[in-house]
């Protein structure tokens, strides 16, 4: 989700229908007082979780790399590459 003029984290959370605390946990590097127009935030799906102490449950999105995921969660890329291997989902 992209930040638009006049947005706050609360407005973005309401628009995405997720609790504010959950949105904050999924975007640990975001400063609520310094949102920038065009800034992109991750919106967690129902299957994803971000408990305060981790571990995160993250759904891979098109274009994701180990580095981009690690950067988003403020972790070294090697940490993302050590994540459990994912089995492909069966096609229906």
TrEMBL record:
Tell me where on the tree of life, at the top rank, the source sits: Bacteria
- A Pfam match: LysM
Q: Report domain LysM positions.
A: 1-43
Membrane spanning residue stretches? none
**CDD domains the record matches:** LysM (cd00118)
Q: Which SMART domains match?
A: LysM
Known InterPro entries for this protein? LysM, LysM_dom_sf
Q: What is this protein called?
A: LysM domain-containing protein
């Amino acid at each position: 989700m992209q930040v638009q003029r006049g947005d706050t984290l609360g407005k973005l959370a309401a628009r995405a229908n997720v609790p504010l605390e959950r949105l904050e946990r999924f975007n640990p590097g975001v400063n609520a007082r310094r949102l920038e127009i065009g800034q992109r935030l991750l919106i967690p799906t129902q299957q994803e979780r971000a408990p305060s102490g981790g571990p995160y449950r993250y759904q891979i999105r098109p274009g994701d790399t180990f580095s981009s995921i690690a950067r988003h969660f403020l972790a070294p890329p090697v940490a993302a590459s050590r994540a459990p291997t994912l089995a492909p989902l069966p096609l229906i």
